[in-house]
Amino acid sequence: MQTILDNQAISDQGEQRFAPTDEPPADQHSALSTQHSALQRETVVILDYGSQYTQLIARRVREQRVYCELVEHDAPAAQVMALHPSAFILSGGPNSVYEPGAPQLPAYVLASGVPVLGICYGLQLLTAALGGTVEPHLRQYGPATIEIEQAADCPLFAGMPVTTNVWMSHGDSITAPPPGWRVIASSAGKPTAIASPDGKYVAIQFHPEVVHTPLGSEIIRNFLYNIAGLHATWTPTALIEQAISQIRDMVGGSRVLCALSGGVDSAVVAALVHQAVGEQLTCVFVDNGLLRLGEAEQVEETFQRALGLNLITAHAADRFLARLVGVIDPEEKRKRIGAEFIRVFEETLAEAGDFEFLAQGTLYPDVIESAHPERKSAARIKTHHNVGGLPADMKFKLVEPLRYLFKDEVRAVGEALGLPADLVHRQPFPGPGLAVRVLGEVNRPALDTLRLADAIVREEVLASGIEATVWQYFAVLTPLQSVGVMGDGRTYANMVAVRAVSSQDGMTADWARLPHDLLARISNRIVNEVAGVNRVVYDITSKPPATIEWE
């Protein structure tokens, strides 16, 4: 399977790997990204050592309008240096630097002479590489308070109070900084931030990228601007120009099929590809029977009539439901749905001629959670149907211009492209659709029940006027049944769970504190209007430890 626009850059829920045009590509991926570096003079390279937070580092960098790219720690030196890094950030990770076989600091990082920020494991890498000592000492997990050494006068903490709260997650600590380095912050009397004599290298034990470090964005901003001397030049408009240029170069005169779901991700992809190659694009919408109430009709109306795109609708509900008979495991659901999507595309377009490329709205969180080979150091959280669920023998080459973008960045691009506001800000919907919101086996009666319950949740949240403050809200049909009383009679019926979360990027999320009267209306309507349901519960679990979707 070949991936077009298989870039390697990031934001907070993304991005692109672009190599300069005057150097030969080291591999296929870098060959597909030759447009970018010539336009993007400043690039922060984030070396990924396997932390689940690594993508959030990229997010925080992008929030400062500084371009960055995420690269595996063991990527070839030529590939990394072809990006002409303006600075490096070393991520956290699950290893201990003193263990045999643990990932080490590539020689090119220090040899490059550019500023470096080490975070958690990154701090330990710098310490070990430059003669300091790291030991299994002072384990810290969760909130902590650091004291900034004012005498050190380090620009990393410029404008910050003497004490501040941070988020720790480490089992190893530095017991001696490298020779000549100074301690710039401490926690519980132990060094938690250090700087090289010239201030070019700084390293911290805590995680500034997570929201639990309230001033984390300021710390990253200080590194980018005060230490690395970078500028706020990255914008959605620049991304659009680069993506369109890449699509044209990669696709040439070939025809492109766009997998259209009706959500913002595939809509932005369709708009980008359409601007790049025009009538060479054909969109295919698969009505797989796993959509929300009235969604299929809405998709056809929006994309065919409102946006004027070439659209083919494949009515394939029976096929997908047949593939899901007896399937309980959510991973198997995702894989079967992903494989069936491709088969439907191939068969639907057999009469329309040959299509060499498939464009789809894969986002960076999909790649992160699926532990795609691009992030082989990280653990797989769940397989996304459009990443790990794609069949190995599929005939298409992939066009994925949003593959390293987070959701909010996609929305910014959508706005810049002039897409309708109600489409751009539509709440996220999983690729496998309601199949992962029906817990257990998926069948028509269960889907019909869930559609009605979910429609009530969405109607009531919209009517309340608080939808802009909630990242995602939906219903889940559980396999549990419970005893109830209706009309003075005993019932034994289904339980529906309501899920609503607040988030900035979808990578972390907190359960939304919906007003009690709103929850009461939702519960009352579901029990009274949806046959076979006699109990409604509200999910008050954050991500982590849970994921936003139940499956």
Give keywords.
Rossmann fold, 9-stranded mixed beta sheet, GMP Synthetase, Chain A, domain 3, 6-stranded parallel beta sheet, 32% helix, globular, alpha/beta, 551 residues, 21 strands, 17 helices
Q: How widely separated are the two ends?
A: 27 Å
Backbone structural class: alpha/beta
Nearest-integer average pLDDT: 84
Spatial shape: globular
Q: What is the number of helices?
A: 17
**Full CATH superfamily name of the largest domain:** HUPs
Give the number of domains. Answer: 3
Uncertain regions: pLDDT < 50 for 5+ in a row?
Answer: 1-40, 371-375, 378-389
> What CATH architecture of the largest domain do you see?
3-Layer(aba) Sandwich
Describe the protein in words.
- This protein has a nine-stranded mixed sheet with strand order 3-2-4-5-12-11-10-7-8, with helices on both faces. It has a six-stranded parallel sheet with strand order 1-17-16-13-14-15, with helices on both faces.
- Helix content is 32%, strand content 22%.
- The chain is built from 17 helices and 21 strands.
- The radius of gyration is 25 Å and the shape is globular.
- Helix 5 (107-111) links the parallel strand 4 and strand 5 (116-119).
- Mean pLDDT is 84; it is low at 1-40, 371-375 and 378-389.
- 50% of the residues are buried.
- The protein is α/β, with parallel strands linked by helices and 551 residues long.
- It folds into three domains: 41-227, 3-Layer(aba) Sandwich (Rossmann fold); 236-424, HUPs (Rossmann fold), CATH 3.40.50.620; 437-538, GMP Synthetase, Chain A, domain 3 (2-Layer Sandwich), CATH 3.30.300.
- It starts with a strand and ends in a 13-residue tail after the last strand.
